[in-house]
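ok posting inputs for the pyridoxal-5'-phosphate job
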Amino acid sequence: MDVLMDSVLRDARTVTPSLVLDFKVIKEHYDGLLAAMPGASLFYAVKANASPQILALVVERGGGLEIASLAELERALDAGAPGSRIICSNPIKNPAFLERMHHEGVYAMTADSTYELEKIARHAPGSRVYVRLAVDNRGSVLPLAGKFGVDAEEALALFDLARELGLDPIGLSFHVGSQCLSANSWANAIRTCGEVWRAAAGRGHRLNFLDIGGGFPAGHYHTPSIPTVNEIGAAVMDAVRRYIPREDLDILALEPGRGLVGEAGRLLVSVVGKARRGGDEWLYLDAGVFNGLMETYEGFPPVVRLLADDAGERPVRSYTLAGPSCDSCDVVARGVELPEVHIGDRLVFLDAGAYTNEYAAAFNGFPIPRWVALNVEAERLVE
Ligand SMILES: Cc1ncc(COP(=O)(O)O)c(C=O)c1O
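and the output
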């Protein structure tokens, strides 16, 4: 673990719950993603963590932002992103958001239904649009399939309709699901895109934009079975070369959320209570599914460590981890093996930079984790 991160986590003055975020790690991941997929354009998925400092970092490095709402558009503009470096991959957009995107010259937006194309044509006439394909999400820990995306036939019909409505159909997007553990998921999805791309060309559409979404996983450094960004990048670039007509492709867009910021964050919590129930040992933490650990409720297995100098000497026990609120759904994980934990001990959740504070609410009065930002211009900054 980085020395500065370690000292902040072990510092008794660091209050809990806190989300400690190392900007040096975000920069390394930014460079790593683009090195693994040379020539690609990075549009950071703001939803993962909309901290203004992260957005500013991406914009300063020449990247773009992927937004889902009017509020995210405001944040992107505040961070200094021009409309030309913003895309919207949320298939469902309200009229006020569409009108504002149109006004700001947002580069392009997605659609996956005739209704959405008609809405875009009315409120953001002439926009560049890309169609979201439904692709196999089985390789991911948090699948997004079902809610969005169309099949090849419908995609072609949407391209035709977009043209009839005076829009500019430029390409395709997909999402393989969050924390995707199979590089093949991207390769297979790109192959499908290639088929649609060629069929669209046959109908007179000149596509030039391929958006391979997010899904880049965190955690290879502690779980070697999780693919590296280089392994995924190799599969992506190979599939792009094979399946997408080289002369057409102007923009290969990436929309990393977790893959950019996940590993940069660690969530520090305190154990505030203990109980034995029906043979299970329960630990109650000062952060739970409402105030920071919502992803665990969606089935994301947390990676958690005990922060104690004598951790190695304590016997290992199996615990149920729960949040502090009065709701019985506020259970973070079961069967978590940790060195024996006492009330007052501190635990740290790894890979917590994405979808923690962004998802959190202060239900029951339990606070959203405080921010601690490290290595922002090489200085420690506590907000
Ligand atoms: C359209 C879109 N793009 C990108 C992302 C970011 O995904 P991830 O954090 O898995 O990289 C998401 C996440 O839900 C998404 O819906």
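notes: Residues 45, 47-48, 66, 89, 144, 175, 178, 213-216, 255-259, 354 surround pyridoxal-5'-phosphate (CB under 6 Å). The chain has two domains: 89-256, 263-382.
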